[in-house]
């Protein structure tokens, strides 16, 4: 799939229509996720244009056939004629239509015939039959996909075969069937799907690797995976290979790296104690990967790199949350901000992912808090306050992490125009951002009393008074008002007009 | 939004040093115990552990699934001349900014004790998703159009269609 572009010859779908379609899909996916039913399948499809001689419209999904036409296709395939391969190809093309799929699986003997061809000793028949099964596996109609269940044991067997293209097809077909139901998985697991995948992951072929990653990612998202699947996976050689394959180079292997990164994320966020991955050096490995990516990617990040960066960030964040280990490499801060700069325009969702990691890095590390300041990354961090509601809450949290470390850090913070940036937040209706803002102000005033006076001068008093009647905010707002009303004592080291000392 | 105001020379700083120096990267230190927050203030720095259903992960998950479904694509028109390999940069997305209604959930999640957000909760139950929308017409580009710098492995280019709405 990697690097694929959609081509449109002549009058195809315009950009606006594609955007509308994408928005529709996005809305559906969000809804599915909130209902905990987020599932997608993948489809491999051969270049139909090459087959059809490049006619316009050859790339569209074919129209549904009538029952009789489907029956005719099946008969043609069942006959041992010379053009059996041709008939099978025509069947495969017809099966791109879901309606035709449904008719086909209902025909008596259809799946038996297809299975027979799939297990044929003739390689090209076998491949074409595999393509038919693949189309069926992709159906959103469970009865169609379930019709493929009898072939799953063959699919597993053929994963140890030699043909890359055939293996790849089998993998994606399996991956699609895996999400159909727990019953499918219950069948596959005792048949040894995990050991087979552990063997396939040692293949030198990138297409196979990406397919392995896909199957694994589907297995790992299953609801029973923490109990039935993850322990088996962690017990195998899969984890060490996944970590190896996630560290791709920009020249090759991105597709597979993406799949395994998501697999690692699914494991880490579902598994209670990630000692296996930690023991394999997941944190230094993934840290090195981020450093490498941040230092090597061009300003216009290649399409799809965000699909790798996202799960890697998540793994690191969750692994750091689990362990007490401290990261003392400030280059990771640099990497995070370079990645933010790279992806900010095209993929703003990465902002919250980066900030989550930044929180986990800075929460209990005075070293990294100071490094963030001395690397002059604070202006960039403050700019992220404007990204989204979630981003501003996270930025405020990171600022609190820094301020909490003491007067020195507060003084450095206040060297930036931070108070004017906080005032507008106090005017927003968002209670979560408001709460963090009040916490930050408290820390700043606590360590730098002069800041309270500056805040008052900038109209902070009125901004705080607005919240004296908000239940979850009023105590803190009142406490801050009391702080700003206190008379100034002797000038503190936090006076912003004093020269900075290091 | 404008580009980030980063200081110059960061990339160079990144390349200096020894990437595989694990001794430099990780030190086992006991986590610092923060001072107790003064009431009514409650902030204490805390590493966050997020489970699979957390709202913060929604945008990224959706993006991942759009990719699986083959919806992520360059919105720029591919050149009509098949011999010109087209390098297209990623166009601006519609930008799924976090909807406001997430904020309340997020607030609750961020207040949770880290242990409570560990795995074992909020398990996903992947049943086939109902997804409206017709499938996109599939077209695979000729291999000659694919820029040689982009590797996609051994063979088939994948076409995609997403799951249809179930009847």
From TrEMBL, chain A:
Q: Where is this region: Disordered?
A: 43-63
Q: Cite the SMART domains for this sequence.
A: ARM (SM00185)
Kindly state which keywords UniProt assigns to this record, in alphabetical order.
Membrane, Transmembrane, Transport
Signal peptide segment: none
One GO BP on record is: protein import into nucleus
- Per the record, the domain of life is Eukaryota
Start and end residues of each IBB domain: 1-51
A molecular function annotated in GO for this UniProt entry is: nuclear import signal receptor activity
Q: Which residues form a coiled coil?
A: none
Q: Does the keyword Acyltransferase apply?
A: no
Name the UniProt record assigns to this protein: Transmembrane and coiled-coil domain-containing protein 6
Organism annotation? Lepidothrix coronata (blue-crowned manakin)
Q: What is the lineage of its organism?
A: Eukaryota, Metazoa, Chordata, Craniata, Vertebrata
From TrEMBL, chain B:
Q: Which organism is it from?
A: Lepidothrix coronata (blue-crowned manakin)
The superkingdom of the source organism is Eukaryota
Q: What is the lineage of its organism?
A: Eukaryota, Metazoa, Chordata, Craniata, Vertebrata
Q: What is this protein called?
A: Zinc finger protein 511
Q: Which gene encodes it?
A: ZNF511
Q: From the UniProt entry, list the residue stretches annotated as the region Disordered.
A: 77-139
């Amino acid at each position: 799939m990697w690097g694929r572009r959609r081509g449109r010859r002549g009058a195809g779908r315009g950009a606006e229509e594609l955007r509308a379609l994408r928005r529709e899909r996005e809305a559906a996916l969000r809804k599915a996720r909130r209902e905990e039913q987020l599932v997608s399948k993948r489809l491999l499809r051969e270049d139909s244009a090459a087959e059809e001689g490049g006619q316009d419209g050859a790339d569209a999904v074919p129209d549904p056939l009538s029952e009789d036409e489907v029956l005719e296709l099946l008969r043609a395939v069942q006959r041992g004629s010379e053009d059996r391969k041709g008939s099978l190809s025509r069947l495969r093309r017809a099966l791109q239509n879901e309606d035709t799929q449904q008719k086909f699986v209902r025909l008596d003997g259809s799946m038996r015939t297809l299975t027979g061809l799939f297990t044929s000793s003739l390689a090209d028949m076998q491949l074409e039959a595999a393509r038919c099964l693949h189309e069926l596996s992709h159906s959103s109609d469970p009865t169609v996909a379930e019709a493929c269940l009898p072939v799953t044991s063959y699919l597993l067997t053929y994963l140890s075969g030699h043909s890359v293209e055939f293996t790849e097809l089998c993998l994606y077909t399996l991956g699609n069937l895996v999400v159909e139901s727990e019953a499918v998985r219950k069948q596959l697991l005792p048949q040894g799907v995990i050991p087979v995948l552990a063997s396939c992951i040692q293949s030198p072929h990138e297409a196979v690797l990406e397919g392995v990653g896909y199957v694994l990612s589907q297995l790992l998202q299953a609801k029973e995976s923490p109990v039935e699947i993850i322990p088996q996976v962690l017990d195998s050689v899969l984890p060490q290979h996944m970590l190896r394959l996630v560290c791709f180079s920009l020249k090759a292997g991105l597709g597979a790296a993406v799949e395994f990164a998501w697999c690692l994320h699914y494991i880490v966020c579902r598994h209670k104690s990630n000692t296996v991955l930690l023991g394999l050096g997941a944190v230094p490995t993934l840290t090195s990967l981020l450093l490498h990516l941040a230092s090597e990617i061009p300003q216009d990040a290649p399409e799809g790199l965000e699909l790798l960066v996202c799960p890697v960030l998540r793994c690191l964040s969750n692994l750091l949350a689990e362990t007490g280990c401290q990261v003392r490499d400030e280059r990771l801060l640099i990497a995070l901000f370079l990645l933010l700069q790279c992806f900010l325009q095209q993929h703003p969702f990465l902002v919250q992912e980066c900030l989550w990691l930044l929180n986990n890095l800075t929460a209990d590390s005075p070293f990294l808090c100071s490094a963030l300041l001395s690397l002059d990354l604070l202006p960039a961090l403050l700019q992220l306050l404007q990204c989204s509601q979630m981003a501003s809450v996270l930025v405020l949290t990171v600022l609190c992490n820094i301020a909490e470390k003491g007067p020195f850090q507060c003084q450095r913070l206040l060297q930036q125009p931070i108070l004017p940036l906080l005032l507008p937040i106090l005017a927003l209706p968002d209670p979560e951002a408001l709460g963090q803002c009040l916490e930050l102000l408290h820390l700043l005033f606590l360590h730098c009393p002069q800041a309270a006076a500056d805040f008052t001068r900038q109209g902070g008093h009125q901004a705080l008074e607005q919240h004296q009647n908000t239940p979850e905010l009023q105590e803190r707002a009142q406490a801050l008002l009391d702080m700003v009303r206190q008379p100034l004592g002797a000038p503190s080291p936090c006076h912003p007009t004093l020269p900075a000392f290091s | 939004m404008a580009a980030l105001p980063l200081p110059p020379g960061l990339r160079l700083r990144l390349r200096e040093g020894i990437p595989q120096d694990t001794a430099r990267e990780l030190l086992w230190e006991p986590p610092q115990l923060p001072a107790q927050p003064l009431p009514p203030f409650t902030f204490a720095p805390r590493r966050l552990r997020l489970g699979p259903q957390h709202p913060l992960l929604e945008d990224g998950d959706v993006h991942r699934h759009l990719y699986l479904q083959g919806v992520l694509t360059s919105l720029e028109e591919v050149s009509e001349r098949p011999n010109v390999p087209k390098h297209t940069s990623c166009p601006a997305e519609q930008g799924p900014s976090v909807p406001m209604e997430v904020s309340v959930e997020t607030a609750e999640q961020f207040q949770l004790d880290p242990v409570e957000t560990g795995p074992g909760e909020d398990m996903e139950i992947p049943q086939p998703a109902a997804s409206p929308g017709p499938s996109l017409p599939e077209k695979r580009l000729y291999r000659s159009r694919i820029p040689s710098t982009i590797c996609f492995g051994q063979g088939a280019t994948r076409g995609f269609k997403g799951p249809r709405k179930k009847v």
